[in-house]
């Protein structure tokens, strides 16, 4: 199984388990996340690029992978993704560089898939 499928399968499996707990607060947080990234005054492609930059600054590799996958689905190209990377590194500082490396590696994997 490739890295992308492994990540997506794990995420789905764990989300199902988490939501099966039927915890009202967790369900509302998940719903809020879904709604925040839905089409609105800001288009989905832009929202995913914002989510990617924020995830990099917060240094959440799982979130970075998720938003990279969504960026690919939304048609973000290499030049755009590297602009997002540059903004994230500017805002987050050099501590973001290790996450940049992993993000570039995952982006390359997505491009091959």
From TrEMBL:
This is Carboxymuconolactone decarboxylase family protein. It comes from the Bacteria. PANTHER family: ALKYL HYDROPEROXIDE REDUCTASE AHPD, BLR3452 PROTEIN. Coiled coil: none annotated. The lineage of its organism: Bacteria, Pseudomonadati, Bacteroidota, Cytophagia, Cytophagales. Residues 27-105 form the Carboxymuconolactone decarboxylase-like domain. Pfam families: CMD (PF02627).
